[in-house]
Automatic annotation (TrEMBL):
SUPFAM superfamilies: Thiamin diphosphate-binding fold (THDP-binding) (SSF52518). It catalyses: N(6)-[(R)-lipoyl]-L-lysyl-[protein] + pyruvate + H(+) = N(6)-[(R)-S(8)-acetyldihydrolipoyl]-L-lysyl-[protein] + CO2. One of its GO terms (molecular function) is pyruvate dehydrogenase (acetyl-transferring) activity. The pyruvate dehydrogenase complex catalyzes the overall conversion of pyruvate to acetyl-CoA and CO(2). It contains multiple copies of three enzymatic components: pyruvate dehydrogenase (E1), dihydrolipoamide acetyltransferase (E2) and lipoamide dehydrogenase (E3). This is Pyruvate dehydrogenase E1 component alpha subunit. Keywords: Oxidoreductase, Pyruvate, Thiamine pyrophosphate. GO terms for biological process: pyruvate decarboxylation to acetyl-CoA. Residues 11-270 form the Dehydrogenase E1 component domain. Pfam families: E1_dh. Its cofactor is thiamine diphosphate.
Length: 319
């Protein structure tokens, strides 16, 4: 199997999984709102390829399904968590915005806008203090970039020389507000340069180049014990949450953002040895696998109401 097809299969599964989640939401099976990662699949795969799950830690935003799967979280356990089922990553108690899979390197995802960024600084400080050779990476959006805690964390990472890679997913929209209307100075990379960080930009539709950049910056953080900043331009192909009205088209057109990275990458795949029919059959097999995962999760028992209380009772008091 060639590398392009293998990469497309991985990215398409992330997309198909989220489409299956969206269908489950439409059927009333998902508690709360669902925020999809559509458009950021290649970035999630690039981060997973560049990091070491044994020593590195990742924190993510409320759009965390793709990064959890890319890092290697069990799709069934992810689906169960999203659906509030007892077999979920956190027993179905955390839900769609708070996926946690430390065995894969995913320290935590967070529903508070920008809340995951200070958490990543803690992970980076732990790696430096314990001399594990690891680092931390944090995924956050252009809306979160304007949160005070994010800029404070950037300052702290620079001052303490933390091996922390800030990865800004710039889709041009903060919930439903164009980033150009809410961001002073417009250039988010200029902010990072103000903290003397290594800074790069990348196009989320060019996965080969994206992997190289993430690997290079991750290596920089590990070897120098310094923070770095990567701004990745990606589209957001849905509303703020699934089912919400969307201003995506206007904001994407304003930024000149492509409609769909997977569609663009797919154009590379047909050739003498691979027909359009072959690709359609492959996509249907992947979609069927994703639907089967969600169907299986729907049959699992719901989270136990008393599970959280029993878990809390096991915690040791802070001295």
């Amino acid at each position: 199997m060639d590398d392009n097809l293998s990469l497309y299969e991985k990215a398409y599964f992330l997309r198909a999984f989220e489409m299956a989640v969206a269908s489950a939401f439409d059927a009333g099976r998902v508690p709360g709102l669902v925020h999809l990662s559509n458009g950021s699949e290649f970035l999630a795969l690039a981060v997973a390829a560049a990091l070491d799950r044994n020593t590195d830690r990742v924190t993510a935003s409320h759009r965390c399904h793709a990064i959890a799967l890319a890092l290697g979280a069990d799709p069934l356990r992810v689906a169960c968590e999203i659906l509030g089922r007892a077999d979920g990553l956190s027993g179905g108690l955390a839900g769609t915005q708070h996926l946690i899979a430390p065995e894969t390197g995913l320290l935590a995802a967070n529903g508070i806008v920008g809340g995951q960024v200070p958490l990543a600084a803690g992970a980076a400080l732990a790696a430096k203090t314990r001399k594990t050779g690891g680092m931390a990476a944090v995924l956050f959006g252009d809306g979160a970039a304007n949160q005070g805690a994010v800029m404070e964390t950037m300052n702290l990472a620079a001052a303490l020389r933390l091996p922390l890679l800030f990865i800004l997913e710039n889709n041009g929209i903060a919930q439903a507000t164009s980033a150009t209307a809410a961001t002073g100075g417009r250039s988010l990379t200029a902010r990072a340069r103000g903290f003397s960080m290594a800074v790069e930009q990348a196009d989320g539709t060019q996965p080969d180049r994206l992997v190289q950049i993430v690997e290079r910056l991750a290596g920089y953080c590990r070897t120098t014990l310094e923070p770095a900043f990567l701004e990745v331009h990606v589209p957001r192909l849905t509303g703020h949450y699934h089912g919400a009205s969307s201003v995506v088209a206007e904001a994407s057109e304003e930024r000149g953002c492509p409609a769909d990275p997977l569609t663009m990458f797919r154009e590379r795949l047909p050739g003498p040895d691979r027909s359009e029919a072959d690709l359609l059959a492959l996509e249907e097999r992947i979609s069927a696998r994703a639907r089967a995962v969600l169907d299986d999760a729907c049959r699992r028992p719901p989270a136990e109401p008393g599970a959280l209380t029993r878990w809390q009772a096991t915690l040791e008091p802070v001295q």
